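Now for my pick.
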Amino acid sequence: MKWFLNSSNFAFTSKYILYFFVISFFLSPLISRAQINLDDNYKILVDRVVESKATNYQYLDSVFSEFSADTLKMNYLLRVSKQAHFIKGESYALNMLGEFYRNTTNYDKAISFHEKALEKAKKAESIDLEVTSLNMLGVVYRRLDVIRTALDYHKEALDLAETVKPITPSLKHSIAISQNSMGNIYLALKQYDMALGLFKKSLVIEQALNNKLGLAINYHNIGYAQEAKGLLDEALKNYQTSLKYNNEIDSDIGRVICYNSIAKLDIAKGRYETALPIIETALEKAKVINDKYYISTSYSNLGLIQLKMQNYKASEKNLREALRIAKTYQLKSQEAETYNHLSQLEENLGNYKTSLLFYKQHVDLDKAITGEKNFQYVTDLILKYESEKKNNQIKALASENEIVKLKLSQNRRILILSLIGAILLIGIFIILQRQGQLKNEKKIVTLEQEMLRNQMNPHFIFNSLNSIKLFIINNEKENAVYYLNKFSKLIRKILIASTEKEISLQDELDTMALYMNIENMRFSNEINYQVHVDTNVNTSVIRVPSLILQPFLENALWHGLSSKASDKQIELNVNQDSLDYISIAIIDNGVGRIVSQKLKEKRKLNRKSVGIDITKARLANFSKSFINDYKIEIEDLYENGKACGTKVMVHIPIKRAVLKTA
């Protein structure tokens, strides 16, 4: 502001000079007393740190971070550090004072302090403090929406931090700040996916450091980007998480930010009554903090709620106040948003010309912030950073390449020896596998031989021939010829089947019919043997192990029916209830297994039957080439509590396993 030396101005100025001296006279003792009464413990703490000439930024921050918002204490640290030529202490104090002025929207003063802090950090050759100062400057310029300058500072901070090996926790935190700030720049340019990527990278670092302030900031920023993409529920969760961390660290400014964001979501969902008290609380806290950016934001959001609630007079008042603050403190993004709200208000009031004027001002400011040149500049700088990072990685790999070459010759020897060992192991494996196959083949041959011996049982052959002989003796030539023909066919089928592992189900049923015919001769044709095949079963196509049903029929005859006086029946039912199995049921109406076992124990001479065990072994071997295994179920049948026969269910797999047969 310029002053002109006319009489009225001179009188006005003189009056205020007089007031200034009077006030100074009365306040100077109070100021001196405040200096004298500065916490003695704090003075001792400052003296100790300054005397130690602490070289670690992380240590300085751990000691003084709780006093960082107290300008009196930071000024004391600055003064004592300057007197003792402790440059790092000066740089730290200047940055904290700059942060205070930034949060109170005094951006020119904030920039001045951060630039001085950067100068001191370079003089002290402290990369930690230099990176911190660069990031602080970037944040201030980002608040002012001077995107290029902000990005330049954050990029410089990031490059410098990544030169330090091994990287310190404080530098990791600085990298997280740089990534977060660059993400905020992408937010301003409405490149939300790019922003999300940087926020998530920053979040990972803050989680590793367990930095609750950093976590609060990143969760909020992630929520903001999600809100812009229309993911409102996900955004709300992240805002609430951010608020939780802000409450834990008792950050009023963090609460103000979260309240505004949560209220904006309520506005978007039409919950104006819910949003109103949240924004009012945010505005009160923002005034206490005296952060003009968030005061303007809160006024703007309050005006938006009132606009939606059709309280136009109150809405205009609050929007005008938001605009005034934004213009006064050069808050371009907030100014643009408020113009947009004012445009909506004027449209609702029917003032279309004024509405259009406000909207044009909104668009012009928005273009200035998110212009194509800005976006291109940011993108080019990010690409340049990524390119430099990759080049550095290539150089690092090249230096390691020589070491790798030296190891290669040694690795070749190890590789050759490993290959020889692997070949030997493969050879041994093949030999063992082949031996296993040979054992399996031998087992199959043994089973087939045992099966043949079981089918060609001497007792069965002798009894069958003896029965035919009786027909001849009794001069029943037709019966003798009939049964001799049947017997010869059965023997031929048994001999042919013994040479084949599998036969069709139809051949198996024909063979069993011959077998039952011959056996029935010995029972004076008292046995009623019936076969039922479902119409959906194609017995010519289905393959089963040869002579697999004979042991079950033999058991039904000699253990179930031989001890029964009359009404001897055997049913053989074939059906397919599943695509995986063919089910064969052998049902007799004999005396049952319990009675049969008792009768067997009373006999003086028992013939041990191994047919069922052989059959199970053959079915197990047969099932190896199928997806499912075989199943045998034996059920005792009862009628009125009395045994009335036995039912044997044989489930033979029919769906082959492709992998096993490949």
Residues 1-36 have pLDDT under 50 and may be disordered.
